[in-house]
Amino acid sequence: MMKQLIDSFIDYLGQERGLASNTLDSYSRDLRQYGLYLEQAGSNAPEKASRATVLAYLMDLQKQGKATATIARRLAALRAFYQYLLREQRVQQDPTANLESPRLERRLPKVLTVKEVEQLLKQPRTDTAAGLRDRAMLELLYASGMRVSELIALELADINLDLGYIRCEGKGSRERVVPVGSISIESLREYLRHGRGELSPGAEERSLFLNHHGRRLTRQGFWKIVKKHARDARVSKEITPHTLRHSFATHLLENGADLRSVQEMLGHADISTTQIYTHVTKGRLKEVYARAHPRA
Questions:
Q1: Does 187 have pLDDT greater than 90?
Q2: CA distance 4 to 207
Q3: pLDDT tens profile 193-223
Q4: What is the C-alpha separation between 154 and 166, in angstroms, rounded?
Q5: Domain 2-87 has CATH 3.40.50.300
Q6: Which residue has better confidence, 283 or 64?
Q7: Among the ranges given (105-114, 118-127, 211-220, 259-268), the one the predictor scored with the smallest mean pLDDT
Q8: How far apart are CA 71 and CA 59, in angstroms?
Q9: Which is the CATH superfamily of the domain at 114-291?
Q10: What value, to the nearest 5°, has the Cα angle with vertex 220 and ends 217 and 226?
Q11: Which residues, including other chains, have CB under 8 Å from residue 24's CB and lie 6 or more apart?
Q12: Mind telling me the catalytic residues?
C-alpha cells in the first residue's frame, strides 16, 4: 500500500507540478525511509498514522544523529505527502499539521576570492581538446552562475555566442536566459573550433560538453575535472561543484549588482534564497575592516 501511495504522489509531483527529477528522487527516498519506519513499528499504513506517530519518527531520526537539515527535509516531504493524501481523500486529517520544523542554522556558502578564481580558471591546458573543454566549462560557470546540472544539460542550440547569452533549464523546468561575458564567449568559441570536434567523431551528438567517448559529460565526470584543476591551482579551500556559482553571486554583489538581477541570473524562485549572499558579502566587509582599520 505504501509503495503505491508514494508512486502516485511522485507521479503527481512530476506530471502536475513539473518538479525536477532530482527533487522527485529526494521525495521518493525520504518517503521510503518513512515507510520503512512504519513497517518496523508494526504498520505499513500511512493513512492510519497519527500526529504522535510522526513525532515519534522525527525523534527517532534525532536519536540516529541525523542532521537538523535532514530532519527538516524529511518533515517537509511528509507534509507534502499528507497534503496530497488529504486532497485525494485517502486520509481524514493531516498528522503533520501544526508540527514545527526544527530551526536550521543557515550555513554560508563557501566562496573563492577573485584571485583564487583566476588561478583555478587558468589551470586547463589549451593545447588539448579536453583542456579547451575544461577551460570553457569553468569560464562559463563563473560567467553565468549556472548550476552544474544546467551546465552539463546544455546543447549546441542553447548557446548564442554572437548575442552573448545562454539558454538553460533550471529547477522545475523553468527556462531562463543568462548573459555571459567576452572571456567566456571566447573560451567557448575556441572549444567549438578546436576541441569539440576531436571529442565527438560524429555530428549526431548535440550535447555541448562531451567526455572522451564523445557523449554528454556527466555530473561525476565534471566533479573529477574540477577537483583535478583545484589541486593543480593549489586552492586550499574546500571546493564543491557549486563553488563557482556561489563565487559568481558574491562577486557580483560585492561589485554593486542589485539583488533582483542576481536572483534572476541564478534562477532562484524566491529572493530569500539569494539573500544569503548578502550575509557573505557583509562578512567579507568585516574581514576587510578588521585587517585594514588601525583601530579595528
A1: yes
A2: 36
A3: 999 989 886 768 889 999 988 899 998 999 9
A4: 9
A5: no
A6: 64
A7: 105-114
A8: 9
A9: Intergrase catalytic core (1.10.443.10)
A10: 90
A11: 10, 13, 14
A12: 147, 171, 242, 245, 268, 277
pTM over 0.90? The answer is no
Alpha carbon separation from 254 to 164, 284, 289 (Å, rounded): 23, 9, 14
Closest residue by Cα to residue 244 from 146, 151, 164, 159: 146
Distances (CA, A) of 103 to 28, 77, 202, 232, 271: 24, 16, 53, 39, 20
Q: DSSP alpha helices (H): ranges in the chain?
A: 2-15, 21-40, 51-63, 68-87, 114-121, 129-144, 148-153, 182-190, 196-199, 219-233, 243-254, 259-266, 271-274, 276-292
Cell numbers placing 75: 518533515
Partners of 166 in the beta sheet?
159, 178
Q: How wide is the angle at C-alpha 256 spanned by C-alphas 108 and 154, nearest 5°?
A: 70
